[in-house]
Design brief:
Blueprint lengths: L1 E10 L2 E10 L10 E7 L6 E4 L1 H9 L3 E2 L1 H17 L4
Length: 87
C-alpha cells in the first residue's frame, strides 16, 4: 500500500521535511517513489511547497496521506487560494 508521508531532512534541532510517496511499511527516511514537495516548520509562518497536481495524481492512484500530510495539503490549498487574485 502506498502512503504520502513526511521524510525528515535538515540538521540536528533544525528539521525540514520532504513530502514523499512511498510504501507504507518502509522506513521513515528510506527509499521513496516521488518527491512531492517540502515543509519547513522552522520558518514563520511555516513554509509549505507542494506539487498539487502530483499529490492529486497519487491520491487518485490510491496513496493515502498521513494525518499530518493531510493537514499540510489543506493548508497549501488555502495558501494558494489566497495568493490567486480574484478575477
Amino acid at each position: 500500500m502506498l502512503a504520502i508521508q513526511l521524510m525528515r531532512t535538515g540538521a540536528k534541532k533544525r528539521p525540514s521535511y520532504r513530502v514523499v510517496v512511498k510504501e507504507k511499511q518502509s522506513k521513515r527516511d528510506g527509499a521513496y517513489l516521488e518527491n512531492l514537495g517540502t515543509y519547513n516548520p522552522t520558518q514563520q509562518p511555516a513554509e509549505i511547497k507542494l506539487k498539487m497536481d502530483r499529490v492529486l495524481y497519487w491520491i487518485g492512484k490510491g496513496a493515502q496521506p498521513t494525518d499530518t500530510v493531510g493537514r499540510l495539503i489543506k493548508a497549501s490549498d488555502k495558501q494558494q487560494a489566497q495568493a490567486q487574485p480574484e478575477a
